[in-house]
Amino acid sequence: MRPIRVLLIEDNPGDVRLLQAWLADVRGVPLALEHADRLAAGLARLARGGIDAVLLDLSLPDSEGLETFTRAHAHAPVVPIVVLTGLDDEMVGMKAVREGAQDYLVKGQLTGPLLVRALRYAIERQAADADLQRQRDALARSEKLAAMGRLLAGVAHELNNPLTVIVGHTAFLRQTAGGGALGERAEQIARAAERALAQQRPPNREWIVLNPVVQDAVALLLPQLRSDQVEVRVECAPEAPRLWADPHQLQQVVLNLATNAHQALRDAPPPRQLTVRTRYAPEQARVCLEVADTGPGIAPELQRQIFEPLFTTKPPGRGTGLGLAICQGIVEGHGGTIRVESQPGQGAVFVVELPVEARQRAGAETWAAEARAGEAGPPLDEWRGTAFRFDATNPSRPLTAQDVRDLRAKGLGYGEISILLALTANQPNPATAKPLNEILARRRAGKGWGELARELGYKNLGSALRERGERQEKSGRR
Predict the structure, then answer these.
(1) For the chain, which domains are there?
(2) 370-389 pLDDT, tens per residue?
């Protein structure tokens, strides 16, 4: 049984010896008593942690009266304090209890059992108070989240019709623009609108790699970031394994964190820098996302509140207090964690950690080796000699090892590459066939493989893959 570690802050040597003797006489309750004869020394010991309760004399050489308790309580608010008073200052002890002390004891009326009982009750009451406060905080948070959910549902309903119109018009614009810069801009607008519409649908988990999700999100914000002279760095770990996740929700996390960093950087002098990186931590079985900025940083007292719904430090018109709460809800919904690391004047780093499934961990080492070696792997053997139209502006050409490596760098597994190649090569109607890059863009915009197969004219994904097998049998490559 771990002893109760008690800090006695008392300057009178006689009272110290008496208290030590009383506590030594109590059997069955292991106690470890430490002593400080000044409040400053006591506060320094509390700062090191490991103290379960404090016995505090209110009359010390460097502090007197109720102020002694106030300073100790402010320094260690979670440690229960039992105040020691003389016969002539019992009223001060009662005031200390009203201010947050767990109990007060009159020195002239002490006994060993009374002292131990007061300490044990103080520790239990402090724990009960802390648990009650956690329940209150959880209730307040749930009420805020419920209000936020009702607000967002109303906003989503109002946005649904204009977003649908935007998607329709950008589809027409893409057809008329063909390739080039205008077509690429139209594609970005369409993907952003489709992503916004996707937020109104239930979460749709699939096997994804975080890197392309991050890259797409940053690409959406690049024009605004560059206009504010923000240098953007994206550092993606090539060996990161896949996650069972909703890509739209994770992209929303990246967008919210990067947008917050952008707003913070507007208040910072040049050079302004935003860094978004991914990394794989195999020892924790986690894929990590970090969004770092060189802005003004976040004060320690605010870091405990910034994830609360509707809490914001931004001026009116620049923040709603919803972004980080939404991020936390999404990350925790994926079984992960989110935290902030910051010092005032030194920028901020938001760290998201997402769990890797056991079967993905088993293959992560192989995947990392493949990524480092740049392997082309099975898809090249499977489709060697087949010509593909990669984009609308260039003719078809045979698949190369570099093509497969490029697709791997975008986060696709070998199985996904094979499906993408099958959908591109075997399209039922050559007159309306889509190039590989357009099919991939639709996939990364959130469409499932089955949905894509139907859009391209297949009955379903299975029919596309069966047709691939039949063609390979005829050509003798299977």
Answers:
(1) 4-130 (3.40.50.2300), 208-360 (3.30.565.10), 374-474 (no CATH)
(2) 444 444 556 666 777 788 98
